[in-house]
Specification:
The structure holds two protein chains of two kinds.
Chain A: H1 2-28, H2 39-64, H3 69-90, H4 118-139, H5 145-164
Chain B: H1 5-31, H2 35-61, H3 82-104, H4 109-130, H5 148-151
C-alpha cells in the first residue's frame, strides 16, 4: 500500500534524524540538540527493546537448562519474527541506516537471575511473556493504526507463549 | 485516523460476522468431538455467543442494525471427524482474531483496547486447539489444513473460499 510505504519512509527518516544531527554537529558545532523522535518511533523502539530482551532471556534459560531447549525453540523463533517485523517498520531496507546486528540469544539479560530448575525457568519466562504482552497492550493505544495492529498481534502471540509455558502443559 | 462512527460500525460488524461464523462452526465441530474436547468446544461456543451478543449491543448503541448470521456457511474443508473438527476450531479462532484486529485500527482507545483483548482471547483459544502458538495471530492466517485422516485420499485441499468465517 502506498500509504504504508509512505509511513515507513517517514519513520525511517525520523529514525535517521539524530544521526544526521550528530554528523552535522561535528562540522559546525554547537547545533541545537537533535529533535526528539516521533511518538511512533519511540513506541517502536520500546517494542524492539522488549523483544530483544525476551530473546536474551530465552537464550539465558536455554543455556542454563538445555533440556528445555527443544520446547522453547519455537517460541524463541517467534520472538525473532516479532523483532524482524518491528525492525522492518523502523528502518527501510537498504535505506542506509546502521547495520542491524542480529540479536544474540547468548547475551545475558541485564541484571537477570535465571532460575535453576526447569519448572522455575518456565515460570520465569511465563511471567516475562505476560508482562511483555501487557506492556504492548498499554502501548498500542497511542500508536498509529497499523502499528497498533502489529502490537496487538504480537501481544496475543506472547500471551499464547505464556499459556504454553503454564504448568501442566507439555514439557511443563 | 478512523474516529468516525461509520468506521467503528464497519469494524464492529466485521467482528460480529466472524462471531456468527464461529458460533456456527463450533456447532459443527462440537458434533464431531467427545469428552474433554467436546466440553472445550461447548465452552468456546458459549464464549462466542456472548461475544456476538456484546457486539450486537455495541452496534445497536451506535444506532446501526447488527448484521444477521448467514443461514448457512461453507466450511473451509469437510469436517467428518474429531481431527478435522479441531482444525476447524483453530481456523475459526484465526478468523475471529483477524476480524478483531480491525477494531484495533480505530481511533477510539476503548474500542482499540477491546479489540486487542479479543485478539488475545481468540489466540489463546486457538493455542488450546492446535497446541502451538502463532507469531502473528490475526495477521497471519495459516491455510486451512485438514488433518491427514480427514482427507484420506491424495486429493489436493479444497479451495479455501467463502469460508465459515464469513
Amino acid at each position: 500500500m502506498a500509504r504504508e510505504a509512505t509511513r515507513r519512509v517517514v519513520l525511517a527518516a525520523a529514525a535517521s534524524l539524530p544521526l544526521v544531527a550528530t554528523g552535522c554537529s561535528k562540522g559546525i558545532g554547537g547545533l541545537a540538540t537533535p529533535p526528539s523522535p516521533l511518538p511512533d518511533v519511540t513506541i517502536l523502539r520500546d517494542a524492539i527493546a522488549g523483544e530483544t530482551l525476551m530473546i536474551s532471556r530465552y537464550g539465558a534459560v536455554m543455556k542454563a537448562a538445555p533440556a528445555l531447549a527443544g520446547s522453547l525453540r519455537p517460541l524463541l523463533d517467534q520472538h525473532r519474527e516479532h523483532l524482524a517485523r518491528l525492525r522492518a517498520r523502523l528502518i527501510e531496507p537498504h535505506a542506509g541506516g546502521q547495520p542491524e546486528h542480529s540479536p544474540s540469544a547468548s547475551a545475558s539479560p541485564p541484571g537477570a537471575r535465571v532460575p535453576g530448575t526447569p519448572a522455575a525457568a518456565r515460570a520465569y519466562l511465563r511471567h516475562a511473556e505476560q508482562a511483555a504482552a501487557q506492556t504492548l497492550l498499554a502501548a498500542l493505544t497511542a500508536a498509529p493504526p497499523s502499528l497498533a495492529q502489529l502490537l496487538a498481534s504480537i501481544a496475543a502471540s506472547e500471551a499464547s507463549h505464556a499459556l504454553l509455558l503454564s504448568p501442566g502443559r507439555r514439557d511443563g | 485516523m478512523s474516529a468516525s462512527p461509520t468506521t467503528a460500525v464497519r469494524a464492529l460488524q466485521a467482528a460480529l460476522a466472524a462471531e456468527h461464523a464461529a458460533v456456527y462452526g463450533y456447532g459443527v465441530a462440537g458434533a464431531h468431538l467427545a469428552g474433554a474436547r467436546q466440553r472445550a468446544a461447548a465452552r468456546d461456543w458459549t464464549a462466542h455467543q456472548a461475544a456476538r451478543d456484546s457486539l450486537a449491543a455495541m452496534i445497536t448503541a451506535l444506532r446501526a442494525q447488527p448484521v444477521e448470521a448467514a443461514t448457512a456457511y461453507r466450511l473451509p474443508f469437510p469436517v467428518r471427524n474429531g481431527a478435522a473438527a479441531v482444525t476447524l476450531a483453530a481456523f475459526l479462532e484465526d478468523r475471529v482474531a483477524a476480524a478483531y484486529l480491525g477494531l484495533v485500527a480505530l481511533g477510539d482507545p476503548r474500542l482499540r483496547a477491546f479489540g486487542a483483548r479479543a485478539v488475545r482471547s481468540a489466540a489463546l483459544r486457538a493455542v488450546s486447539w492446535r497446541d502451538r502458538s502463532l507469531a502473528f495471530p490475526g495477521l497471519e492466517l495459516p491455510a486451512p489444513r485438514p488433518a491427514p485422516s480427514a482427507v484420506g485420499r491424495a486429493s489436493p485441499s479444497p479451495p479455501p473460499a467463502g469460508t465459515a468465517a464469513g
